[in-house]
Write a structure and sequence with these properties.
Helix content is about 85%, strand content about 0%. By secondary structure, it is an all-alpha fold. Helix 6 runs parallel beside helix 9, helix 8 runs antiparallel to helix 9 and helix 12 runs antiparallel to helix 14. It starts with a helix and ends in an 8-residue tail after the last helix.
Length: about 450
């Protein structure tokens, strides 16, 4: 237990570095994972296949939302139990996360196969893209149990303080995918189907690595079936409740992506591909800031569980500075390199020009988006599931979805990019206010009667 607590009890900057750097590297690796399929598919110079990857992505995002709900909820609960010194809960939460990942993965796969035709139509496929999107989606669905398990295990390991093991698993999965992509897509000429196969196999390899580590090194957490079913199933609700904010964000992101694609189809396949490339271009700005804030979430939960308000405040201030600085630098970097980045995914000149325009609008909130992720992760770490869920629902659903239709009606195709910027700005303001208000509330309640907060 002491070995794991050392990460959380270190000095603020060291603790931030110990947790955020592996998480950040994991996010960067995930970015490569996210971009690899589209990059290698783009080498076919077939915009229909590039568009198919984008059209299937909302369903994949929904699948990842389930793993995020389990992994991040388990991460927070495990970190809180670690701060409280409760080893029994650590075992129970771990087992529940493991087996629920497999169960939800099977349910997702069955749903995709049973409802494939209406699902593909809802995703916005046209006659040009239907067959490609179907192939990509169903292969990913076949591997859903192992994909969910791989990403859920990453969250569980972060909660234990084993961030480097989780990072190694992400790297193994991503680089296996990157190595297999050209084999299946270009050498074996499988196109988007080959990209999906490479993704599934990469996750299989990563899960095998984590399971081998568990067998050799695990000393507290467990994946035994018995603890997950011995009068502890109600604890699954506690895990899912805390993971729900992240899941809502991903689910609504997928839903918004579907609605956006439905609108984009009216402008042609080129527009679908261009918007997909623009979204990939801004990923670096948002995901780096998200990675830092997700990395320190177990530390925030540990401080909250131990009621160490002074350290919690210091951590928040340092992470705030860090995300603002990186946000400015990354936004400027992507802005100046936007033509090159879009060119990685789009070879058609007209579609690439459209993607370059969209990137400019989508970068407007880049320097500040870290404020949103910090506030949202604090609310989750503090166990305030309703506020954290609302925060996620605002950015990717309650605000973004209606703004997509409003801005498209007012500004046409470019309005779809502006909708993301407007939703981000409003979400930063609202979530920041909720986080500040909740922090003041809990610290005030802990003060002895008659003592004023300094």
């Amino acid at each position: 237990m002491n070995r794991k607590e050392n990460i959380f009890t270190a000095s603020p900057w060291r603790a931030i570095a110990e947790l955020s750097i592996p998480s950040l590297l994991s996010i960067l690796v995930m970015m490569l994972y996210n971009m690899a399929d589209m990059y290698f598919v783009a080498m076919s110079r077939d915009l229909r296949q590039v568009a198919a990857v984008s059209l299937a992505m909302p369903a994949f995002t929904f699948m990842m939302a389930i793993s995020t709900m389990i992994g991040n909820g388990g991460c927070t609960r495990i970190a809180q139990a670690l701060g409280q010194g409760d080893e029994k809960k650590l075992r129970q939460y771990s087992a529940l996360c493991f087996w629920s990942s497999i169960g939800f993965g099977l349910l997702f796969a069955l749903t995709c196969f049973a409802a494939q035709r209406p699902l593909l139509r809802f995703l916005g496929t046209s006659e040009e893209t239907y067959a490609y999107t179907r192939s990509y989606l169903l292969i990913l669905a076949s591997g859903a149990p192992v994909i969910l398990l791989n990403h859920s295990l990453g969250g569980m390991l972060r909660g234990e303080g084993l961030v480097r093991v989780g990072l190694a698993a992400h790297m193994i999965s991503t680089f296996a995918n990157i190595l297999l992509d050209p084999l299946f897509i270009l050498v074996l000429k499988q196109g988007v189907a080959g990209a999906a196969v490479a993704t599934v196999l990469g996750n299989v390899i990563a899960v095998a690595y984590v399971m081998l580590y568990r067998v050799r090194h695990a000393d507290i957490c467990t994946i035994e079936l018995r603890p997950a079913y011995a009068k502890e199933l109600k604890m699954l609700g506690a895990i899912l409740a805390l993971g729900l904010p992240n899941a809502i964000s991903s689910m609504l992101s997928g839903l918004a992506g579907t609605f956006s694609n439905q609108l984009l189809v009216g402008y042609g396949t080129d527009a679908v591909a261009a918007m997909a490339a623009a979204g990939k271009a801004v990923l670096l700005v948002t995901m780096v800031q998200m990675g830092i804030c997700m990395g320190v979430q177990p530390l925030l939960a540990y401080c909250y569980g131990g009621k160490d308000w002074a350290k919690l405040r210091g951590i928040v201030q340092r992470v705030l500075f860090l995300t603002l600085a990186l946000g400015v630098l990354l936004t400027l970097g992507i802005w100046f390199a936007r033509k090159w980045v879009i060119g990685l995914f789009i070879k058609d000149a007209a579609a690439a020009a459209l993607g370059i325009r969209q990137v400019g609008y989508m970068l407007l909130m880049g320097p500040l988006i870290g404020l949103y992720y910090l506030a949202s992760n604090f609310l989750q770490a503090a166990g305030n599931a309703p506020a954290a869920s609302l925060s996620s629902a605002l950015r990717q659903g309650l605000l973004l979805i209606p703004l997509l239709y409003l801005m498209e009606h007012l500004c046409g195709l470019i309005g779809l990019a502006l909708a993301h910027t407007a939703a981000d700005g409003l979400s930063i303001l609202i979530t920041g206010f909720m986080a500040i208000a909740y922090f003041k509330k809990v610290t005030k309640e802990e003060l002895p009667h008659g003592v004023q907060e300094t």
